[in-house]
Design brief:
The protein is an alpha/beta fold. The chain has 3 domains: 2-128, 3-Layer(aba) Sandwich (Rossmann fold); 133-236, Winged helix-like DNA-binding domain superfamily/Winged helix DNA-binding domain (Arc Repressor Mutant, subunit A, Orthogonal Bundle), CATH 1.10.10; 310-378, Serine Threonine Protein Phosphatase 5, Tetratricopeptide repeat, CATH 1.25.40. The protein is built from 16 helices and 12 strands. The protein has helices at residues 11-21, 36-42, 62-72, 87-92, 105-122, 131-134, 164-175, 183-190, 196-216, 242-250, 261-270, 285-308, 312-325, 330-343, 346-363, 370-373; strands at 2-7, 27-33, 50-54, 76-81, 97-100, 139-142, 148-151, 157-158, 181-182, 223-228, 231-236, 240-241. The chain has a 5-stranded parallel beta sheet, with helices on both faces. Strand 10 and strand 11 (231-236) form a beta hairpin. Helix 2 (36-42) runs parallel beside helix 3 (62-72), helix 12 packs antiparallel against helix 13 and helix 13 (312-325) runs antiparallel to helix 14. The longest helix is centred in the C-terminal third of the chain and has 24 residues, at 285-308. The radius of gyration is 28 Å and the shape is elongated.
Length: 378
Amino acid sequence: MMNAILIDDEQYALQALQDVLSEFKQIQVVGTFTNPLEAIEHCPGLDVDVVFLDVEMPGMDGLQVAGRLLELCHAEVVFVTAYDQYAVEAFELNALDYLLKPVGSKRMEKAVQRLAGLIRQSGAAPLRHVASEVNVTVCSIQCMGKFRVLVGSEQNEYVKWRMSKVKELFAYLVHNKDSAVHRTIIMEQLWPDMDIERAMVYLHTCVYQIRKLIKAYAFEQHMSLRYVDEGYQLRLTNMTCDADEFIRMAAGKEAITSETIDASDYAADLYRGDYMGEDDFPWTVSMQTQLQFIYKALLKRIVDFYLAARDDVRVVTRLKQLIEMSPYQEEFHELLLQAYIRMGDVGSYNKHYESVEAMFRQELGIDVPASIRKLLKY
């Protein structure tokens, strides 16, 4: 049996919807409301699986009500309305379905079947995943390159996101972990072009999805999302984050020694790409610049160590990474060509010199710098 509440500002519409739902034995209506504020007030005390909700209501429209309800109860939302212009926005809010009035029995049957399918898939009430089935006890966060939450003992699976903005909000909270971020700041960062009321709906929806995700993956021992001082705070415990680990291990300025080279190499390998660079979140730019600076300085120190150790194979590896970051810095090209000379690798030398020549002449419109051109004698 699935418990439902119905919300519509018109009593006759509520009665019509209740009459249609009475044909389905698996649905039990546990509450009807003509005032959405009353529904919001009573929802936490009800065992609700699905909310049938009108979109056009005076004072507070259904999209806003849905966002608030999703914060308060674990329920699917089915929008019921006489207008179809909100359909796209409704599904962006992760609504289960969108029904046009008057709702017939056949159309309602499809919505009920979809809801029942969620129950069969989870083995429990909708959105109440059983942690033991997921069996997740280990997780870590990857921020370098592509943002991911890795799960499982082998750390070879990762969380699937139902909405891109849920992923971005979670990433933003990780970015500000352990600090409460005011909701207006979050909305300015994630929904800068949206009016504040609509942005609030999306924020509530995304917060709800994150809380559901934490429960679904049994992450309670690793993280908690709290509402603090009109903002949200993500607390992380017993979790690793590659960006934090990289900063901790790479941010020093001291010369690398034989005792620290392994740790330095490990730190450099943590840099799989720019900080959340593949996700293209605009609020990551400052951190990307900061970590790029740290990474570049670390690579320089590693190169210095391997040059002193006369390990040209590793010199070449790290110089290529430096050149990828700073392709127009002459010094790195000189060092790489010199390493190829010492190694006697004529093929790699010629290939790299040709690429440098093409870069300067075609991309910059200038001749190869004299400091590099003199190495052509090789």
